[in-house]
Each structure stands twice: as C-alpha cells, then as structure tokens.
Amino acid sequence: MSFTSFARAALPFGVVAALLAPAAAQTLVTIDPSPFIDGTDISNAFPGAVLSAQGSDPVSGAVIKRTATTGLAVPTAVLGHDGSFPEFWFDLSGSVGTAILRIDFPDPADVVSIDFLMNNGSDPTILQAFNSSDVLLATATTPGTSGAGSIETATIDRGGLFDVAYVLATAQSGDDVYIQGGNATVLAPECFLLVGLTATAVPIPWGDGTDALYLVPLALFPVALDDIPVFPIPNDPALEGIHVYGQVYMSNAIDFPGDPIKVSNAVDAVLNGGQTAYGTATGMQLWLNQPPVLGGVLEFAFSIDGF
Predict the structure, then answer these.
(1) Which residue, among 275, 281, 272, has the nearest Cα to 300 in the 3D structure?
(2) For 20, which DSSP code?
(3) pLDDT value, residue 7
(4) Using alpha carbons only, what angle is made at residue 183 by residues 178 and 187, rounded to the nearest 5 degrees?
(5) Which residues are bridge partners to 268 per DSSP?
(6) What is the spatial order of strands in the sheet that 230-232 belongs to?
(7) What are the extents of the domains in the chain?
(8) Would the pLDDT of 14 be above 50?
(9) Is the Cβ–Cβ distance between 63 and 79 less than 8 Å?
(10) The domain at 26-187 falls in which architecture?
C-alpha cells in the first residue's frame, strides 16, 4: 500500500476501538470432513485444532475422513480412524475396545461443540474437556435417543475462561456413534499497527489502566514480528515535513494471561526528516528501520518484551 492510499483509508475512532477490544481476539475453529476425499488423513487439516484417535482400537492415531452408511438413509462424511470399525467412535471395552476422538487446541478454547451423528435409537455420547495439566474441567453428554441420521450436539462452555487445552469425544460405555464434526471458540493473539497523521493520548478503557493510544488512527493493519507492511513514500517535495505517526497494539491472553493488553511507544516520523519516539510503552517497542526520506519507504519494526 502506498503512503497516499493509506492516507485516504480513514477509520472512525469508534471502529478502531471495537476492533481492538479484547473480545475481538477470538476465532472460531470449524471441523468439517466433508470437503476431503475418503481416506484422507485430516489430523492437521483444520487450523486451530489438532485431531488424533486414541484408545485400544485405532492403529496409527490419525484421524481420517470416512463415509458413514450403516443405519443411515444418506451416506455422510464423518471423522474416522484406521481401526476395526473406522467410521465409528466407541467404548466397547469388553469386546472390540475403545476409539476416542481427541482434539488439541494450540490456543486455548472456551466453547467446544461436537456434532454426534446417530446410527440407531440408542447412541449416548460423552464429551470431556481438560486443561493443560490434564485436569478434567467439564463433561457434556447427549442421550443418543433421537434416532438414526439425527445430530445430537454436546457443548462445553467455560464462560470466558479459555482454559480448555483438549477434549475427548466418543460414545458412552457399551455403545458406538459417528462424529460428523464440531467447532470451538479459541483465543487468537492479535497484533495491529496503527498509523495516523495526528498525535494524541487516549487511555485504553480496558486492560490494567496503563495503556494508551498515542495517535488518531487513519488505518489499522494486522502485523506479526516478521510480517509488517512497508509504505512507499512518493518523491514529492510537497510531502516534506509531514508527520506520520505509528504505534503497535497487542491483545495476547495466551502468553500474558495476567495482562494481555500491550502497547508500544509511538513513533513520530517526519517525511524527509527523522523519527522521534514518544508515549509510554507497556511491553512493546516500535521504531523505524530507516529514515523516512522522499522516494524511500516508511518501514516500521517492533519487538515484544520477553520474546
């Protein structure tokens, strides 16, 4: 994006505030095997979740796309494995064994739902959520009485705690069931570069009270430590002396659970001049990699304390 086009991309301050609010730092993970070819290993096919098969019956631990037919009027895509009954998840410990779906969340989850697909009129199910220390946090069950071809959804809602590291899902003791898919709400650390043409100092109304925005945002860009936009500066003498302000904001409750909101200092970049840092940094540092000369680029860079 050029400097001139960014300058036309003004965002109302209220819109920026809504995007930066901690509630925005969440994402929905959806697990749906239907787009995949039968027999495909889909253990790592869904960003935000890692699937595995465990128990005494699965062979490799991989989760594989299968097509369920038994008891169903319409063949249906399901999550499966490579054990004796590869379309089913079951607790038949007295005979065949057990097959349990495990879903790990690299970023902790808050709400997890699993869609169980019935193959007859008696398929009771169980969903269990655990934290990173393998402590059982919550259990949800469904009766399994809705009949073949029906979906029964088991849901665990942690009420904003975001402490679910993984879940286990299968049929209750003595039964078997299909699993059609599911979804989860997980934390998603977010980091933004804010750029504007006017300096200010506005306290951020969430967090620990020490964070502030030090510019009036015209544009907001998602960034990472190794991925930040560079803005070409036209070689136009009329731009000399213009002040361009930048600041980085982060919401990261995974690495900083006690204080997830971090801001950098702001940088005042004077086109065809120099740069000056101002404002109070709360865990991040921002600077320009090179002087903002006409015909050059506006190249911000930042660091996160402790990374």
Answers:
(1) 275
(2) H
(3) 47
(4) 150
(5) 245, 276
(6) 230-232, 297-304, 284-288
(7) 3-24+189-304, 26-187
(8) yes
(9) yes
(10) Sandwich (2.60)
